[in-house]
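Ticket #4471: structure output looks truncated?

Reporter: J.K.
Steps to reproduce: submitted the chain below (190 residues) through the standard prediction queue, then opened the result file.
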Amino acid sequence: MGAVPRRISNIIGIDDAPFTRRDRRVALIGAVFSRTRLDGVVIRHVHRDGADATQQILSMVGSTPFAEHIRAVLLQGITVAGFNVIDVHELHQTCGLPVLVVARRRPNLQRVRSALLSHVSDGARKWSLIERAGPSEPLAGVFVQRVGLQTSAAERLLRELTVHGALPEALRIAHLIAGAVGSGTSHGRA
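Returned output as attached by the reporter:
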């Protein structure tokens, strides 16, 4: 019988701040959690509709004082700052951590593809990153794309780290902080 994998308790949840069409750079918030306790916050900035999200997240994860303790990266969506698409496979391979993309609803990929290919420079490359991430699957009341984590471990992680609402605390709090950083106050569903 195989060894039971250790529970993942230290994670970073990442979400982007609200932005307008005039904003060239958008704040990216990382909330570092030990189980359901907030241990720290990390902020980086990415270009709206740019191509620097993956590198900024790698910098965020690697440079925090909590880096040696982080065991998984949770993202609220595979894009940030509009269409700045995160390469979840590169993120996983470079930092060596499982990556979970979490969404409340199944993304409308046809709509995303259409927008990327008709309105975004480098849209074909960005669309290929989304396709490579694989389809979203229903899990623990949300939809996820996962890299480096089996379904059962991903479901356990989501269930153990979700206290209020549908999202794990790290994503819920990252969302609230991002709202306050971007607009002066947090609001909306978190």
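Triage note (M.O.): checked the attachment and the full token line is present. The CA atoms of residues 105 and 143 lie 6 Å apart.
Status: closed, working as intended.
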